[in-house]
Amino acid sequence: MDGPLTPPGNTTPADTATAPRPIAGQRQAFLPSEVDPTVFDEAFLRQLERLLVLMRSPVRGGLKGGRRSVKRGQSVEFADYRDYTLGDDLRRLDWNVYARLERLFVKLFIEEEDVTVTLLIDASASMAAGLPAKLLFAKRAAAALGYIGLASEDRVTVSALAGRMARRRAAMRGSGRVFRLLADLSAIEPADGPTDLVAAARHAAAQLHGKGVVILFSDLLDPGADRIIRELAATGSELIVLHVLSPDELDPVLEGDLRLVDVETGDGVDVTVDLATLDAYKARLTAWKAGFADLAAKRRASYVDLSSDTNLAILMFNELRRRRVLG
Length: 327
What we know:
Order of helices and strands: EHEHEEHEEEHHEHEHEEHEH
Number of helices: 9
Structural class: alpha/beta
Distance between the termini: 32 Å
CATH topology of the largest domain: Rossmann fold
Oligomer: single chain
């Protein structure tokens, strides 16, 4: 599936102003945001703690987590009874019921799940484009969703997709790890050269252990972007795709004769932009995003298209709850 016309996030007009690049060796700070400096203050974090990354089906993990399962196991919270069968643990028999009914029943308890939330950050060069930069928005959204996972006692891990690799950080657990989460995200920088997003996503999929939640933050400006969704969904994890484009990509303000230059390869193309061209671009953009939405639905994945200037609080408490990503 190709992008709309020439994929906008991969190209910049050679004769128009582009976003300033960070000084070499200097990381872009992403907390707090210049747009919304109150985000990630203590009050915002307390609100995030009330949310949960929703799952459509239960998963089996090794450790006990903070997420209730539909299956029955051994924990402290009673769920139901079933008849005793030979070989059951006698310690789970309810002797009070036996004294009244003279029948043996085994007590069942709610088991808690151990879930891994994997944050996949597209760090290709095209993600550095836009005002605000798409990568900056992706890291801030990942910080919020990652904190929700930590507060829910889920395991959280961060992987940056660049080149042909997925650079995976060690998993973390518990809200006390929030500063390590922020440090891992802050360390992600856009790739210097081309990125094979399909290969990087396949590498990330091979690193997944067990079933959990995979959240992909990407502009999907790769010729094989549909394969990325298919392969991540095929891992058995629940896939959430946050498709991030910049305001200029969603509604470009261009006119006249321009040369568009691919930020990853340096290849250029000469175009003449008029109203008909912009109308055609927007029509293809709409169809392009609709194709991803249809594919995600068929693969039982969640697809959310976003602008990089989306208010983070609105995204967390309105949009993602409405889409049944958070609850």
